[in-house]
Amino acid sequence: MGKIRIALVGVGNCASSLVQGIEYYKDKSPEEAIGLMNWELGGYLPSDIEVVAAFDVDVRKVGKDIAEAIFEKPNCTTVFCSNVPKAGVHVSMGCVLDGVASHMTDYSDERSFLPSDDAEPTQREIVEILKKSGTDVLINYLPVGSEEAARFYAECALEAGVALVNCMPVFIVSDPAFSKRFEDRGLPMVGDDIKAQLGATITHRTLTDLFAKRGVKLERTYQLNTGGNTDFLNMLNRDRLVSKKKSKTEAVQSVAAVRMHDDDIHVGPSDYVAWQNDNKVCFLRMEGKLFGDVPMNIELRLSVEDSPNSAGVSIDAIRCAKVALDRGVGGVLLSPSAYFMKHPPEQITDDEAYTRTREFISADRER
Fold first, then answer.
1. DSSP category for residue 42
2. CB 164 within 8 A of CB 138
3. Which residues pair with residue 225 across a beta bridge?
4. Bridge partners, residue 52, by sequence
5. Mean of the pLDDT values across residues 30-47?
6. DSSP, residue by residue, 249-306
7. What are the distances in angstroms from CA 292 to CA 216, 217, 220, 288?
8. For the chain, what is the total number of helices (H) and then of strands (E)?
């Protein structure tokens, strides 16, 4: 089947886990491949994914081989594969735009971004890198709140003729105007805002769906998350959280039996705890009424390493995008988007999304 050539926008913790994972599973057998939803997908193995281009703005990463850059500060995720070989692919200077929040300068260099003073490339230069590298799929790992930057790189993908997997909460794939342009170019899209393999939102959705199916009225719920990576530090600026909160909240509301009043649901980041590093802790509470209006509640604490949790889903979203490219299918991949992302254009239950995605992979469903 050949390789899947990807370009990374943002070489942070999520990119680090993805690149480590590609190498980690390279010599594994299907029986040893713990942590994958799919060993083979559309004829592609995890090891068929190859990074051919990468963009970042941090002085500690720009110019370095991707195999070195993924371990540079402020990255702090678990190193589960330290022997990533040099790829001969060096991180290119990206465009800052709104990708770096001003409050990040209030923290130590080890914790925050340290923008390079290299000249920022033009859109034409980025497009040229994508074309020259033979990129098939561009992966957007920009920080939350990078609205302008996310749209800039989506435009680059369109001009370069590559597929897009939008892992962050800027609503590009769910924007009808953008999705129409990708469809007209015959370029697949998967997005928006990646759902972790087993994270806070997917757990919250599953329990909400369970309440609905078992006839339990969900009256109030919250999801509070803490972490110590740059994502949580970046989100201390609440102005950057508008789309993130909407994405996470809608992911839960969409599977509730009855839509909850805004005052009765709170879903979103709570605070930055530096010593947690890439560990994310979710505190979840759900209050409801059983048979006879008898009250009940659930309280749950979930602790996960945030970025490997994301990479386990990215690796399948990437392969679905390439399968669509191979089949000549452009535009939004509705089934993979609903299964892999928090804010897809079409919200359906995870059970149905799983079934539809299996049908897409087996070519029984176009999208």
1. T
2. yes
3. 269, 282
4. none
5. 94
6. HHHHHTTSSSPPPGGGEEEEEEEE-GGGTTEEEEEEEEEEE-GGG-EEEEEEEEEEEH
7. 11, 11, 18, 12
8. 11, 11
Full 3-state SS string of 189-236: EECCCECCCCCHHHHHHHHHHHHHHCCCEEEEEEEEEEECCHHHHHCC
Quote the CA–CA distance of 107 and 94 in Å, as a whole number: 22
C-beta separation of 76 from 228 below 8 A: yes
220-254 pLDDT, tens digit each: 999 999 999 999 999 999 889 888 999 999 999 99
pLDDT of residue 269: 78
Report the C-alpha gap between 348 and 24 in whole angstroms: 33
Pairing of strands 279-289, 295-305: antiparallel
Q: In angstroms, rounded to a whole number, what is the distance separating the alpha carbons of residues 252 and 203? A: 10
Residue 156 pLDDT exceeds 90: yes
3-state secondary structure of 247: helix
Q: Is the pTM of this model over 0.85?
A: yes
| pLDDT of residue 1 exceeding 80 | no
Structure tokens at 165: 């997997």
Q: Which long-range contacts (C-beta less than 8 Å, at least 24 apart) are formed by 150-155?
A: 152/95, 152/97, 152/123, 153/9, 153/55, 153/126, 154/178, 155/123
Q: Could you tell me where the beta strands, DSSP code E, fall in the chain?
A: 4-9, 49-56, 92-93, 137-140, 163-166, 188-190, 217-227, 265-272, 279-289, 295-305, 331-332
182-196 tens-digit pLDDT: 999 999 999 999 999
Q: Cα 215 from chain centroid?
A: 32
Check if the beta carbon of residue 355 is closer than 8 Å to that of residue 318.
no
Beta bridge partners of residue 138, listed in sequence order = 7, 164
- Taken as a whole, the chain contains a residue count of 367
- Mean pLDDT calculated for residue range 203-219: 97
